[in-house]
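Hey,

Quick one before I head out. I ran the complex with cytidine-5'-monophosphate overnight. Inputs first:
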Amino acid sequence: FVAKRLAGRKVVLTAGPTFEAIDPVRGITNISSGKMGYALARACAQAGAEVVLVSGQVALPVPAGVRRVSVAGARDMRDEVLAALPGADVFIGVAAVADYRPLDVAEHKMKKKDGILTLSLTENPDILAEVAALPDAPFCVGFAAESRDLDAYAEGKRQKKRLPMLVGNLVQDGMGADDNVVVLYDDAGRHPLPRAPKAVVARGIVEHLAGLLAVAGR
Ligand code: C5P
């Protein structure tokens, strides 16, 4: 079991997909079961942390010892993250945030018409990049799910978003599944973890995170 390596710490996480409304009954979303984020929230709580999980729509129970805040869209998720952030030592962005949302949300259900329907999309905020750029930013951990060239894309995202730690995985290895195989990236390089159930992978991530926090003197 995880030793209480995060005792006295507050951790805020995002998990699951965001849902960007088109009209009252339709929207666009990303595919994300939320399993990895929920496993990580549980592992943080088991390691003694106070945990706030800002979650998109998933079919998972709230892990013991975790406070869940349910959201739909990326802007909603961003607002709830910022509200939960005071006092946080660590922020972990696991959510599959939609990069774009419909520019206009129809107030009533849209009616079918002949021909092509064009939707205009506008960019969503990058929650993780925004939190990492705060003057008093918590220790920020990112995730990158890639379909190829994992090392290059994952390390590129870590550098671009200025993150001390990022967890990378290939989508074909982990998406929707109960097992995952991940690589951790930090200033010292890459650290592959063995394929394991997401609960075990989550404990490995927490171990590494706790080690980096200690080294950083935070
Ligand atoms: O989408 P991308 O691959 O850039 O996601 C990398 C990391 O950034 C993930 O940790 C994800 O949760 C986070 N992210 C975010 N807000 C976005 C896009 C991504 O917090 N709009």
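The mean pLDDT is 96.

Talk tomorrow,
K.
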